[in-house]
Amino acid sequence: MPSRSVARLLAGLLVCLAVALTGCAPTGAPAGPGTGAAPGASTPSRARTLPTVPAARLPAEARRTLALIDRGGPYPYAKDGAVFGNIEHRLPPQSRGYYHEFTVPTPGSHDRGARRIVTGGGHEIYYTDDHYNSFRAVLR
């Protein structure tokens, strides 16, 4: 039978292990297409340096584009779903093919306009209304 000090040590180690494992447990899936993330989901860690916007506060056209992304299309523009190269380096650096862009129609524009949603491979979503000059991480 182990002595009391050994038993206390083992109990302390088990408590520390439980605390450490709890701290590592995921608190929910990252917000993004197809995840079913609840409104108010936290910002993915790779997007924390950017301003944020709740999905509900996006323009109606952007919310419709998000719904199309969630459904997997069909998309109205041939370039929707194309790889976004992040050549402006406004989003966190990732390997080519990580980001994909989708058009958000701009009322009154005769072309694709300046608004886009960019999705990341980690299920994050970004919105720009100034043709990639700035981005906001979308919270869902």
TrEMBL record:
Keywords carried by this UniProt record: Hydrolase, Nuclease, Signal
Signal peptide from the UniProt entry: 1-31
Pfam families recorded: Ribonuclease
SUPFAM superfamilies associated with the record: Microbial ribonucleases (SSF53933)
UniProt-listed Gene3D superfamilies: Microbial ribonucleases
Transmembrane feature ranges: none
PROSITE patterns: PROKAR_LIPOPROTEIN
Name of this chain's protein: Ribonuclease domain-containing protein
Classification of source organism: Bacteria, Bacillati, Actinomycetota, Actinomycetes, Kitasatosporales
